[in-house]
Amino acid sequence: MKAWQDVASLYQIYPRSFRDTNGDGIGDLNGITEKLDYLAWLGVDAIWISPFFLSPLTDFGYDIADYRAIDPTFGGLDDFRALLEKAHILDIKVMIDLVPCHTSDQHPWFQEARSSRDNPKRDYYVWRDGRDGNEPNNWRSLSGGSSWEFDEQTNQFYLHSFLKTQPDLNWDNPAVRDEMKNVVRFWFDMGVDGMRVDAIWGISKDPEFGDDSPNPDFNGDPEAYGAFIHDHCKMGPHFQEYLRELASVCDEYDDKQMVFEFYPDEKLGDIYQQYRRVLTAHPKASAFFMEYRQDEWHAEHTGQKIEKYLQAAGSAKPFFCLGNHDQPRVASRLGTERARALHFLNLLTPGVSVMYYGDEIGMTNGELTTEDIQDNFSPAHSTIDSRDLERTPMQWDDTRFAGFSEVKPWLPVNKNRTFVNVNSEKSSPASMLNLHRALLRLRQEFPIIKNGTLNIVSGTDTGNGFILGIKRELGRERAYIFINFADAPQSFSIPENGRILASTHPQYLLLGKDRQMTIPGYCGVLLIH
Fold first, then answer.
1. In angstroms, rounded to a whole number, what is the distance separating the alpha carbons of residues 118 and 112?
2. pTM of the predicted model over 0.85
3. Does residue 326 have an active-site annotation?
4. pLDDT digit string (tens) for 283-306?
5. Strand partners, 98
6. What is the DSSP string of 47-75?
7. Could you say which of 63, 168, 198, 388 is catalytic?
């Protein structure tokens, strides 16, 4: 089986929405197993599966009641073992989610911890007395309101950085860190190849529990999350140390990988210095590049972001991605044509290119009503910012339920399933799906794409500020990527002649004399020398 150093792509699966095989309208592990042949056909090297552990599902799996058990919604351990076996036969690595910042309030640890102040598990979580009859400090929850919930049984507050059903674990307790490392060992022993580690910023906090500073740039509700600079509630003094300790479990095994979910906070200083702290925590760990989510459509700035992330990564394996289960789909954020250009770019960056299920066919946010929304993070089940919008069922075909299920799915299928689906796009050479397949094959066929150095070709060199130019080098081989950020055709200079290896618009390219090239709006092109 290929090693992580040879992996070129990672495909995220949100299991509830991938494929339902037992007729309950919810995706399951056997559905993933059934579709592994499709992923192998596509050219995927590795998959990351969002949580499928035992959970009351108040945060759809990110509230874990047992890290070693599978929720019956998704199947059982034997189903997961079968998935793992088939994936490995197909030379596909399997990465799963680790949620170390918090558990469910139904986890046995928390049930013991809240039973009495002197319970041995009490210090597994963060408990504090109130301050002048109020919460211990002003920390805010990402789900809204205070981060503190009063527990009448023991007359203290417990900390929750997310929903009140997700109490924060106390990572300053060595026993908690040992518990998490043992969870990793459990799955690594079973054969899991890697861990995507959720919400790492919360594992270290200010030990003095000082108030977060007010945000002078915020206008709005003074109690909102954005009203504060989060300089005490996250990324505390032991942040990098605890990341290193967790990732060190990889050293006990052959060829394991961790990737941290990390969103740097511009209010806390240079974001690439923050990235660097995470990317350099351990040789077998990395962090997703998520700066595309800012939706800044600017050639020069996009190139600068890529360069700065790679500089921060140093020798760490880079992981470039356009979205995930918490971000609106890229085609809805930017439009179909811009999304196509950005996918082209993302699939030609060094290291590992990450795809969110359905993005390879151009899936867009769902069209949901307030009655459809199930996401508990959505205020009053809002249809504006609900994460359910990017979690609608995978569109396999144009049938009523898009080949996802035989019954009504847990979320409605997007109406564009009639033309945005795997079956129809397989037979269309110019489809988003076949573009992904072609580029994934090139990632495997040409080592320069995955392993080559990257340097930005400036607009002054191409003579066109709308064009993002990227030079890739490996040994004596050179390749160039050009992306047109304008909506109209652009002409520009290429540094040297070469053959066109791939493009978003191959039928419309014009290579003129004296190294002049003209490409359509929102076009991407790959040249190799």
1. 10
2. yes
3. no
4. 999 999 999 888 899 999 999 999
5. 197
6. EEE---EE---TTTTSS-SEEEEE-TTT-
7. 198
